[in-house]
Amino acid sequence: MKVKEIIQAIEQFAPLQYQESYDNAGLIFGRADQEVTNALLTLDATEEVIDEAIARGCNLVIAHHPIVFGGLKKINGNNYVERVAIKAIKHDIAVYAAHTNLDNVRNGVCKQMAGKLGLENCQVLQPKRGLLKKLYTFVPEADIEAVRAALFAVGAGHIGNYSEVSFNGPGQGSFKGGEGAVPHVGTVGERHFEAEIKLEVIFPVYLEGKIIEALWSSHPYEEVAYDVISLENAYQDVGSGLIGTLPEAMDEMKFLQYVKQQFQTGCVKYTPLRGRRVKKVALCGGAGSFLLKKAISAGADVYISSDFKYHEFFDADNQLIIADIGHFESEQFTVELFYHILTEKFRNFAPLKSTIKTNPVNYL
């Protein structure tokens, strides 16, 4: 198996196009065509993790956080990032990161958090915009099913929990084939009218190449008329954070103790209790203070995330409880997610989970 095959499996689950503009997800070090001996899964690709990969015979490290976040002007071992780069390259170890793209998919990092709490009816807290497009095309009535099926097969027509979604409107098309044309119907040099179906399907932007290829390969016309437009619709399956409900409402303090236990954290920093039971819970892996207002407007009783600054705790304003559980603690189960993605895709491949706890924060 090659590195690129493993990357393809991860990016099929969490496309790189879903990462934030500031991010650096993807293959950080190494070659995509390199054969994989085994893969080591981790939250952070630290120097200690690279040592572990060497010791355990792994030449691919898959991390959540990109070890290189900004540009490297020099690589001379003066800091931990440069030391990782030198050691990984020296030992021919590829390093790959799936970061905010894995955060932003509905079944990604936040879903792992929600699963630990047993949340139900989870929805993306802040769906992203600008990630959807729509295809319009015109197909002879006799060929519409074949074209529809080809487009559905490569991922067109998915809206929420529904698949094979399309709009089909009857109409009449006209064309006149010129010299050298080989029309599917009609006669060269004569205007022809054909009963056609206007077909509309929605699709995520990263699939555009496959959508157009499927259209051309399945459409009977020599020249295919179609339009692709960008949509500003919110993509309900992609975005920041999740919000869901507990199976049964809980006492506030008991819920916070439950959170501490489930996330194995040495500390939960929280705002004043409100004297209400907890039913609706919002959460976000990593630094999630930017979603606080969204959690409040969505009616959450508690918002679980990390890296809140002192003054940001005041912003809860008794409208919900902020529970800051720590950055590492909120994302630690990403390793389990990587393992699930790869073992589901490759039944004969057993990646290794790192035994190194990379959390740089300790608690007394």
From TrEMBL:
Q: Which Pfam families match?
A: DUF34_NIF3
- Protein name (record): GTP cyclohydrolase 1 type 2 homolog
What domain of life?
Answer: Bacteria
Specify which residues bind a divalent metal cation 2 according to the UniProt entry for this protein. 64
The record's section on InterPro entries has:
DUF34/NIF3, DUF34/NIF3_bac, DUF34/NIF3_sf, N-reg_PII/ATP_PRibTrfase_C
What quaternary arrangement does the UniProt entry report? Homohexamer.
Keyword set, alphabetical order: Metal-binding
Q: Does the keyword Magnesium apply?
A: no
Q: Name one GO cellular component term.
A: cytoplasm
Please give the family membership noted in the entry.
Belongs to the GTP cyclohydrolase I type 2/NIF3 family.
Keyword set includes Metal-binding = yes
A single GO molecular function term of this UniProt record? metal ion binding
Q: Which residues bind a divalent metal cation 1?
A: 65, 103, 327, 331
